[in-house]
Amino acid sequence: MDTTSSQLLIPKINLGGGRIVLSKDGPSVAFAELSSTYPLKLLSPHVTEDGIAVVYALTYGGGLVGGDQVNLTATIGSGATLVLLSQGSTKVFKTRLDQRKSSNVSARHTSRPQERGEPTTQRMEFEISGDGALFLLPEPVTCFRAAAYNQIQTFRLDIGSSAVILDWVTSGRKSLGEEWDFSRYYSLNEVWVGGTRIAKDVMLLDDQSATIPPLPRRTLRDKLAPYSCFATLILVGPLLQPTIARIATAYEAIVVFKRTTPEDLIWSTSPIPADCGSGSVVRVAGKEPEAVKRWLKDTLGHLEDVIGTDIYRRAFL
Amino acid sequence: MDGDDETYILLLLSDSNLPTGSFVASAGFESFVKHGFPADWKSNDATTLIFIQDSLETYARSALPFVSDAHRLVDRFKNSLDAAADESHLSDTVLSDISSLDQLYTTMTLNHVARRASKAQGVALLTLYSKGFSRPPSLPKDPSVSKLSDAIAAMLEKLKLMIRREGIDGHLPICWGVLTSALGLTLERSQYLHLFLHARSLLSASVRLNTVGPYGAQQLLLHGVRPLVQAEALRCKDLRTGILDVGHDDMNDGPAMIWPLGELLAARHDLQHSRIFNS
Question: Which family is this protein grouped under (chain B) (predicted)?
Fold first, then answer.
């Protein structure tokens, strides 16, 4: 059976733990709980829109070091909307053990993933009740050379609640010549609606593929060229139906003729097959993370009507 | 089943004329080429091999755990038949597990083009079993195997019915695991052959797409695909879905999509102005 979800229930706050409990309070919303422990920090700026709260999930030093664990749970009550953002991209540094090893040249050859230190792991669990809504719109994750990162996100929605889930990753610090040079990026997004799992999106990027003679070795960079940013966007629930419909219409209007070189940005969308509540999955690939961000900002633009222009601009600076 | 029997089944299943639907599927290859990929290689031969390499790698990682668990389920069914008093209860249990596997595959295949192709090919395999591999009425019954084969045939009929009534999708890797266990192939052979057939149908697609000629495809099949299938079968043989195993480590041993570019291009298949494949 699936064991990931049960491990997410933290009775009290652990190292790097966080809890958000948001519910409707008259015309506005109130936090019954908003707490976090090092290295996670949750900040909620004052916003003027009714029924909506914004939370920034920050980490001290702006990044996660190898072995760091972050466990965040958020409960969103009916009538409440939570916009969860990050400040700057989530930077994942290489694992501690590997850092020591990298100073030792001879160890490089024996360096295998299971011999490295614990990967950085971020777990987030969301529960959205009634007609509540979640807008999870972080900056992309950037894994540095040799970093290992697991991200496990579970979303439990009532029939009638809605969620925008953005999950994206860049190829690393291009300015330092890093291009898909991390050792592991694992991302799981599990979406449940009314007790039924409607999507389990598992993406694993690792550069562990060995050379298979006589074939040329295919590195992660080779396999993903020419792109340096991949985004997955999951849209679920009644609030997102106009967005889903617009994206589907724009998608169906695309006509692909034979090309000799790849486009700078490409995207796709697929409906999520489900009996209860419809949703869609959008994937975007771009040569530059900035271009992907612009595309997302334009495509989701009319969500400004839902969460307000000010908050929308916080999400897509 | 002894080695000769298994070899004979392997020969039957690797017949490229079997109506398994693979001849209308390119698993994203047509779209890949149309979109101007690969970005950095321009010889047609290299294009074909690169796609097979990347496609097989992600397909093995995401689909082989489902082949394995479906195969194990039907093996378990066969092994418990002798001791079972209530055969139909046993088949209901295995069908319910197969249905869970199938649902999981649907929720993990978040690409409508791949889902469509997988459903069509899965159902074709079950039809192949009932129409192509059942004992013809012109031959007398073999009393030594008939109880077992009758029970398996009845279970597969129920499975087909469940798919037709839209209860479950009937995806290719699950139906493949079911079929190969029903025919008596070992799990290892089943995994290997599944990957081989994926690679070979990509080569057939590339011949139709004219990225490689018929002789060139044969050369690649012998010299390029062989080590690739071996390596991927070895790498993914112990991966599982978590449906059958308590204490399963999904983060390391579970199915995963490992080639987001291929996933995206495969999903864009229907956007091509003209196309010859269904996927």
Answer: Belongs to the UreF family.
How far apart (Å, rounded) are the C-alpha atoms in residues B28 and B26? 5
**Chain B residues inside the 8 Å CB shell of A250:** none
Inspect the interface and report whether the beta carbons of B256 and A273 lie closer than 8 Å: no
Look at B31 and A256 and tell me if their CB atoms are within 8 Å. Answer: yes
Please report residues of B whose CB lies closer than 8 A to that of A271: 112
Q: What does DSSP assign to residue B135?
A: P
pLDDT for residue A257: 97
Structure tokens at A203: 């993406």
Measured distance CA(B145)–CA(A44) in Å, rounded:
70
Query: Rounded to an integer, what distance in angstroms lies between the CA atom of residue B27 and that of residue B118?
Result: 10
pLDDT confidence of residue A260: 92
CA of A32 to nearest chain B CA: how many angstroms apart? Answer: 33
> How many CB pairs below 8 A link A and B?
139
Q: How high is the pLDDT of residue A254?
A: 98
Instruction: Quickly list DSSP for chain A.
Output: ---TTGGG--SS--TTEEEEEEEEETTEEEEEEEEE-TTEEEE-----STTEEEEEEEEGGGEE-TT-EEEEEEEE-TT-EEEEE-SS-EEEPPPHHHHHHHTSGGGGGG--GGGS-PPEEEEEEEEE-TT-EEEE-PPPEEEPTT-EEEEEEEEEE-BTBEEEEEEEEE-S-GGGT-SS--SEEEEEEEEEETTEEEEEEEEEEE--PPP-TTSPP--HHHHHTT-SEEEEEEEESGGGHHHHHHHHHHHHT--BPP-SS--SEEEEEEEEP-SSS-EEEEEEEESSHHHHHHHHHHHTGGGHHHH-HHHHHHHT-
Q: Which of A105-119, A148-162, B45-59 comes out lowest in average pLDDT? A: A105-119
Over 80: is that where the pLDDT of A124 sits?
yes
Q: Label the pairing between strands A279-286 and A265-272.
A: antiparallel
> In this complex, do B39 and A2 lie within 8 Å of one another by their Cβ atoms?
no
Q: At B42, is the pLDDT very low, low, confident or very high (cuts 50, 70, 90)?
A: low
Is there a contact between A204 and B49 if contact means CB atoms under 8 Å apart? Answer: no
Closest chain B residue by Cα to residue A149:
B251
Provide the number of structural domains found in chain B: 1
Chain A residues within an 8 Å CB radius of B108: 200-202
What average pLDDT does the segment A222-246 reach? 96
Shortest CA gap A50–chain B (Å): 35
B241 is in which domain, residue-wise?
A: 24-271
- Closest-CA residue of A relative to B271 is A255
Strands A40-43 and A52-59: antiparallel
pLDDT beyond 90 at A53? yes
Asked whether residue B246 is assigned to any structural domain, the reply reads yes
- Is B254 close to A202, i.e. CB distance below 8 A? yes
The enclosing domain of B69 has a CATH number of 1.10.4190
